[in-house]
Amino acid sequence: MEIEAYEGESIAAALYAIGIDVFSYSSKLGRPRGAFCMIGKCSSCFMVVDGVPNTRTCIEPVRDGVRVERQKGLAPVPSEKTVDGSVEPEEVLETDVLIVGGGPAGLSAALELARYGLNVVIVNEHFKLGGQLVKQTHKFFGSKELFGGLRGFQIAEMLSEQLSKYDNVKVLLQSAAYGVFRGGWVGVASRNKLYRIKPRAVIVAAGATEQYLAFPGNDLPGVMGAGGAQTLMNEYGIKPGDRALVVGSGNVGLIVSYQLLQAGVKVEAILEIMPQIGGWFVHAAKVRRYGVPILTSHTIKAAWGRERVEGATIVRVDEKFQPVPGSERDIECDLVLLAIGLAPDTRLFAQAGAVMRWIPELGGPVPIRTRRLETSIPGMYVAGDASGIEEATTAMIEGRIAALAIASKFLDGERAKRVEEEMEKLLDFLWNEYRASPLLARARAGKEKATVSEEEMERLRKEHPPLVSFR
Amino acid sequence: MKVLVVGGGISGLFIAYELAKRGVRDVTVVEERYVGAGSTGRCATGIRASFTSEEHVVLMRESIKLWKEYSSGDLGRYGLQFIQGGYVWLARKEETVDLFKKLVSLHNSLGVPTRIIDRDELKNLVPQLNTDLIAAAMFDPTAGKSYVFTTLFALFRACRELGVKIVTGVGVRKLVARGSRIVEAVTDVGTMSADVFVIAAGSGSRELLKTVGIEVPLKNMPRHVLVTEAFQRAFDPLVIDWDTPGVPYIVQTVEGNFFVGREIEEEPEQSIYSQRIDFIPKALKPIAQLFPFLRRVRVLRYWIGYYVTTPDNHPIYGPFEEYENLYVATGFSGHGYMMGPVTGKIMAEWILDGKPSIPQAERLRPERFKRGQLIKEFAVVG
Ligand SMILES: Cc1cc2nc3c(=O)[nH]c(=O)nc-3n(C[C@H](O)[C@H](O)[C@H](O)COP(=O)(O)OP(=O)(O)OC[C@H]3O[C@@H](n4cnc5c(N)ncnc54)[C@H](O)[C@@H]3O)c2cc1C
Hints:
The complex is a heterodimer. Helices cover 27% and strands 24% of the residues of chain A. By secondary structure, chain A is of the alpha/beta class. Chain A has three domains: 62 residues, no CATH class; 240 residues, FAD/NAD(P)-binding domain (3-Layer(bba) Sandwich), CATH 3.50.50.60; 118 residues, 3-Layer(bba) Sandwich (FAD/NAD(P)-binding domain), CATH 3.50.50.60. In chain A, helix 4 runs parallel beside helix 5. The mean pLDDT of chain A is 95. In chain A, the strands form seven sheets. In chain A, strands 7, 8, 9, 10, 11, 12 and 25 form a seven-stranded mixed beta sheet that branches. Chain B is α/β, with parallel strands linked by helices. The mean pLDDT of chain B is 96. Chain B contains ten helices and 19 strands. Chain B folds into two domains: 201 residues, FAD/NAD(P)-binding domain (3-Layer(bba) Sandwich); 146 residues, D-Amino Acid Oxidase, Chain A, domain 2. Classes of the chains: A alpha/beta, B alpha/beta. At the A-B interface, strand 4 and strand 10 of A face loops of B. Bound molecules: flavin-adenine dinucleotide. The site of flavin-adenine dinucleotide has 42 residues of chain B, from helix 1, strand 2, strand 13, strand 17 and helix 9.
């Protein structure tokens, strides 16, 4: 079948737009699978693209004449024909700073470093820069410096636009940093080319992945991350379904419900396992006005359907979060959105052997860092959601702080001092003003737990000698 | 009789399994991290008897017999598999074919039916192979592979069912001797006493034995490997690129991933958490020459594991002269997975019967190094 798509659309979105939601069949049981996260962090949307199986179609842009096939279980090994000669030789690059991730944190860091004339390589797995900003359609709060009044996607456009003016910044799209190696090398895999990068410092701003929930039928097409549905609606203007059940009443669950309603999707209910609503009152009030029930002390027991979700069974839970027998109820719907939180994408830190700690307020294991955002791997910094789930404005501030911390080391004399002062100002603003808001109390508590003094960091490095260093 | 086995790898688990099967009621395996956390969970699972020392050949012939038996018995019910897909050694050069011919007659004289195969037969066995680069190959049809996770799971279940206690997350820090006996093991959570102590602690064995004054010449050599994403079954044999330095090899796992290894120069004791950026291209370039489709295949994971090596590349098996109730099974030099079943069998025999039923195992006792009675072996690969 021949289909039309918009330029700049992902293959997954283009297929979804014309009603194709089964992308593959699983390898053992042949179960249908569709898109889940829509940002390249899971493996739910694998398809055979131009003969290459296991291609993540949510971060693969459409192009003229591209051949896309449903993958049925394991694919046969690629045939000689698909093995074209377009693989380029590996390139060795040296740079001042390598930034992993082109979302709000990574872009802000890159801009800051670029301004000071440092050489930057920024790698981004997606074919577009902007990260989660791209699907944020709400207006940001705060001053002009914090992009107050602008919408997320506008900020993304602005930052990318500014960045493109610097020729000391090299942007590698559709590229993944695949590992940190002995001697301070970082490996980057682009589509047809490998890079061996030797940076003097690294900022990892790889974002977050959506949390998953275990229940029968959780792999059916139509079971999606809340963010996945937002990508479809807000970024591509595609209606993700007709009748939705939303699991989780935190801000993400409430906001996505509101956006669903605006897009003409009926929201059957919002489930919340806790006895009270998780998100802010303003957001809850908005969806309630539309008559959407928010069922506290409820969870999803199963999703069912043949090729796609056709409904779900929900159940009440007791004080110990155990299902109450007999309280099951069926809800017909074609969309089950999981909005149960995000987990920081800290895989590079784990692989590099950074000292990490499980911090529930931040969504999972995160690297321990100093106030300047340096981790126990010398010269390896963290910023944005990868440092612990917070929000886009703090991500941008953290990106700048990490950049300034690095710049203060690489520049000398007066300039270094100025940079240092600017960083201190930002730190002061972040911790003593911005995060003083009660709305950020939980994230703040988490970030406090993850942050240690320079002396404590030295002690940690003695206790767990880093196997790799960028200094 | 109370037996304490230190190490929850393939060796420790098979030893515990055999002891329990033979009626020992009180067997405890103490594992510092988790089952399979050492070399076992990191290995290529190649299984073969085509060695060039009598000791290895005899032990491995028995081990293959046991792999087969177990895979259709209780362990098989829990998922243990043995796939007799063979091993293929590729000769890129003509002179290597001559060497292979010598090896074949050596193997044949020891009862292992390897043979030389030409390019046509090779293409049948391994259809994706670019045979233009190959002169001929040596084939061992009795060799095979298994899958490490299902093996470990099967052993874990079978051991538990037989009443073996498996304690994970607890390290043994020290052994305590009184006279000619070991009396207890000091662990992270207190001391444990037993009648018999078995050290099957892989890369941790050398340091543990030092705590009771025993020096064994073991080295922990880092070995690098990677796996690709999974595909439908493509070919069964483990394929070895003999004429490329570092002897790269490739094998498709039961789950469909391609497992590729190559020896690169390393210092012993180097951390296994210090990966090298040059490894992936070094391993894949020669293998992708042979298998062009690999150029369109993604690497999923890369890791390092130790080969626990001895000066003669043969394991250290059996009791020590210094103590009457201390046994060791380690130093497999890259072949401990395939030896797992026979390790379990002969170690249980040593402990319960006083000697192993395979006399060649006696030559692998730890004292051989002091006495200079090293075993000679010719081909240490895979
Ligand atoms: C890359 C690679 C490829 C290989 N390929 C093959 C192959 O194809 N075929 C083959 O037969 N072999 C292969 N091997 C070798 C094989 O993996 C090993 O010989 C075998 O797994 C050894 O098993 P083990 O039980 O003796 O040791 P291990 O699996 O290392 O188990 C020892 C256990 O002891 C624990 N331990 C250590 N110290 C202590 C302590 N003080 N207290 C408590 N617990 C402790 C460790 O955590 C570990 O789990 C390969 C090895 C590597 C690294």
